[in-house]
Amino acid sequence: MKVLHGFEYRRGTSVIHKIDPRSKLIYVILFTALTVYFINPLLLLLVLSSSFPIVLISKISNRWIQSIKGSLIFIAFIFIFNFIAIVLTTGSIWLAVTSGISMAIRFIALISIFSVFFLTTSPEDLTQSMVQMRIPYDYALTFNMAMRFVPTLSREAQIIMDAQRSRGLEMEKGNLIQRIRNYIPVLIPLIVSSFRRAELVADAMESRAFGATKKRSSLYVLKMENRDVLFFAISVGSFLLLLSLKLVFGIQ
Amino acid sequence: MILFEDVSYSYAPGKYALEHVNLSIGEAELIAILGENGAGKTTLVKHINGLLKPQSGKVTVCDIDTKNSTVAALARKVGLVFQNPDHQLFAETVEKELAFALVNFGMPLLGMASGVDWAIKEFELNQYRERPPFLLSGGERKRLALASVLCYNPQILILDEPTTGQDSRQKSRLANLLKNLNREGKTVIVVTHDMEFVADFIPRVVLLSKGKVIAEGPAEDILTNRELLMSASLLPPQLAELSWDLTLSKPSIDLEYVISKASSLLGGPQG
């Protein structure tokens, strides 16, 4: 569950925190596209390193490292499965190693880009920017709530685990299947109480006149400022530069 | 029976949830743990069944150092009922819910049936036996959660906020049950904010504030000590307030005592 802390927004004062979510979203979309498009590990490394200056400027390195560390196990899996699959299909160890490394870096880059975005963007700002991008409010709100309840859910999972262990449940006991079954007494209360809470939240919101008018006003309106345009320009510029490395200079 | 020796615990560096706690709870005691929100009450009781291990100091339960034991092993002796029943109910029927702990402990069928039957009778759950726990009302779910721990007959029973959402009939039933269990020789620990419940039914009190034990002793003494209650942000019981308002020389939480004093002040017949 610790890996989730690497995506959880904390208030910050850096310039990155202040940048309009729409600018940051452009960065995320462009560079995510690059991680999928590139195959060469060196190019992927460049994509990954695009997030480094953002991490440094926004002073989120501790939490960012948590997100990377937490996903190391998945990265290891990805590498191993890739390696095995390619050795079996092509028989070339060299190809298997480079492609395994590529896949691993691709995954790290994705984690890093999303981590940087979510660590520095407040859910409210994100919702507001979605609304201003003409996304229907219901969808924006659903997204916002989903993000908002991730830490709540992980805390609740911990309490439920404590409660069931207090009744003698041993999570680590038994073979693989038994261990998976051990999670049933944790998952069911977690799901049930999530439904209960969803109902409560819905009732509470409707009691406060949610959905009373078609057109909502907002407390804040996001406005593009110079720094937002600058961030946008740097993102697009470096995107084009990286793209040209492959398209123009033919680095595969 | 339960011994805390210089126990400290912190969730985040530099901020103690428990700070140098020394506490001894004997066999067959009925005791309340009081304190403001975030005083460390839940952290304290989680140390008793080993969910948390002391970061410094030592907790001993039934002569076992909790550091050398698992939660599952301690749970046989220590029953801990959590505040929110929805955090533990999961089974398809009330009956299976009650049997969960018994199954975990590998109890033979006969003992299991008698444990479940006892709990169903004691907590008036008979009509719900085959029903899913999620369809019960809030108060009933609370009772079921308590029953699901009591049915395996632990030597030490800890209840976190057992009175929330219970009407006065259920509260006095609960009080009677706790007294009976206590009379049978069980140690009962109640974590609560419900001052009236404590004043009426629980003889001994431990007062926590900001992770420290600031007072412990007879409820009669602590619940009538205005400064202590203030410093722990607790509302005094009504009888204590009445005693202060009447400026009794010895404030009390004993109903008959306060009434007799009050009527003598009014010049009425002596009680």
Q: Which characteristics define this entry?
A:
heterodimer, A: 252 residues, mainly alpha, 12 helices, flat, B: 271 residues, six-stranded mixed beta sheet, four-stranded antiparallel beta sheet, 11 helices, 38% helix, globular
Question: What do these coordinates show?
Answer:
The complex is a heterodimer of chains A (252) and B (271). Chain A has 252 residues and is mostly helical. Chain A folds into 2 domains: 2-121 and 222-247, no CATH class; 129-207, no CATH class. Helix content of chain A is 74%, strand content 0%. Chain A has 12 helices and no strands. Chain A has helices at residues 15-18, 21-37, 41-49, 51-58, 61-70, 72-90, 93-120, 123-132, 137-166, 176-181, 184-207, 226-247. Chain A starts with 14 loop residues before the first helix and ends in a 5-residue tail after the last helix. Chain B is of the alpha/beta class and 271 residues long. Chain B has helices at 41-48, 71-75, 94-104, 109-122, 138-150, 168-183, 195-201, 219-222, 226-231, 238-245, 255-265, and strands at residues 2-9, 18-25, 30-35, 56-61, 64-65, 78-81, 156-160, 187-191, 204-209, 212-218. Chain B has a 6-stranded mixed beta sheet with strand order 6-7-8-3-9-10, with helices on both faces. A 4-stranded antiparallel beta sheet of chain B has the order 2-1-4-5, with helices on one face. In chain B, helix 3 packs across helix 4 (109-122) and helix 3 packs parallel to helix 5 (138-150). The longest helix of chain B is centred in the middle third of the chain and has 16 residues, at 168-183. Chain B is globular, with a radius of gyration of 20 Å. The model of chain B has no long low-confidence stretch (mean pLDDT 91). Classes of the chains: A mainly alpha (252), B alpha/beta (271). The A-B interface holds A 156, 159-160, 162-170, 184-186, 188-189, 192-193, 196 and B 46, 49, 51, 70-72, 75-76, 78-80, 82, 84, 86-90, 100-101, 104-105, 134, 148-149, 152.
